[in-house]
Design goal:
Blueprint: E1 6-10, H1 15-30, E2 35-39, H2 49-70, E3 75-79, H3 81-84, E4 92-95, H4 99-102, H5 111-121, E5 125-127, H6 130-135, E6 161-166, H7 170-173, H8 175-185, E7 192-195, E8 205-209, H9 213-222, E9 223-227, H10 237-244, E10 248-251, H11 261-266, E11 270-272, H12 277-289, H13 295-302, H14 308-324
């Protein structure tokens, strides 16, 4: 096997993570690098988060070892801190949020101390948002922030849905908060579509279950409002996708890097409200009733730093030179 410029060790534990890894590999290739993406094979399911992380870290190590035996890359990038925990060779770390923030208490008993060492030992950190570095304790390691690129999707569907939410992890995404606020905000004939989770349809609420990315984006193109009330947001790609597709965003403040939150707070693009039903419901109602024909254009302009061309420029002028220095 020819030796690539960059070995990207992908964890690939979720569809979103696989898509982000493919995007990074694509950006590196467009910058002129030969990239080998070695992705972990999913381990069997185990009962606790600590054991789950161990299983995935071991799977990532196996993928890295196999690739390193067959080639001698110029640089190694581990996708997520979990993939780097048991690394066989020092490399850059790409991550959205550290275990220090999203694995509290016993859930991160062994991951957090190992992660601290890896973040210092790594030659480069590649967070998806600057806030991820802060949550990681602002390690002294050099860093290049590389967002996940977001582009508008294509389609000419009418805006015939009132609202959409995404709730693969219902507690973390605050589905209970969204449903309580929807009961306050909803008018007769309006429907909230809940994507990413199964449930029992109710008056004004329809569960769409797990959707392919294209089907979810089609919902965003049809919806007037995307609403979420997360208890923690590691990145918030759905909010950026909603903005890209001209869908108004209603959210609550949340800990975590939450890349879209500054845009929603200060850019006049979103409704940021406290999570109690009355306040969040009022924000949903205001977004549903808003008359703003220029919203889609302003939202697309605001997410320019997250567009593929901007991300490609960062990868070509900052990331790749650091990796191959």
């Amino acid at each position: 096997m020819p030796s690539p410029d960059v070995l990207l060790v992908g964890l690939g534990s979720t569809h979103g993570l696989r898509a982000a890894e493919d995007e990074l590999a694509g950006a590196l290739r467009r910058a002129g690098a030969d990239v080998l993406l070695a992705r972990a094979v999913a381990p069997r399911e185990v009962r606790t988060l600590a054991l789950t992380d161990l299983a995935w870290a071991r799977a990532a190590r196996r993928a890295a070892v196999e690739a390193l035996v067959a080639s001698s890359p110029g640089a190694v990038v581990y996708s997520t801190t979990t993939a780097a925990l048991l690394w066989p060779q020092r490399g850059a770390i790409r991550f959205d949020a550290p275990a220090a923030a999203n694995r509290p208490g016993r859930h991160g008993l062994w991951q957090r101390p190992v992660e601290r060492r890896r973040l210092v030992q790594a030659p480069l950190l590649v967070p998806q948002d600057p806030a991820a570095l802060v949550e990681a304790g602002s390690p002294p390691t050099p860093s290049v922030v590389v967002p996940i690129p977001v582009e508008p999707s294509t389609g000419d569907e009418p805006r015939d849905l009132a609202a959409v939410t995404y709730a693969t992890n219902p507690y973390k995404k605050g589905l209970d908060r969204v449903l309580a606020a929807w009961r306050v905000a909803r008018r007769d004939g309006e429907e909230l579509v809940v994507a990413g989770v199964e449930g029992i349809d109710d008056d004004g609420v329809r569960y769409a279950g797990t959707l392919a990315p294209g089907a979810f984006r089609a919902l965003l193109r049809r919806a007037r409002v995307y609403v979420t009330a997360p208890r923690r947001e590691d990145y918030g790609i759905a909010q950026l996708e909603a903005l890209a597709d001209g869908c108004r965003v209603v959210t609550t403040p949340a800990p975590g890097p939450y890349a879209a939150l500054p845009l929603l707070r200060t850019g006049g693009l979103g409704w940021v409200a406290e999570p109690d039903p009355a306040t969040l419901g009022a924000a949903m109602r205001a977004a549903l009733d808003a008359e703003d024909p220029g919203y889609a254009h302003r939202a697309l302009t605001a997410i320019a730093p997250f567009r593929r061309a901007s991300v490609d420029a960062v990868v070509a002028t900052e990331l790749l030179p650091h990796l191959l220095a």
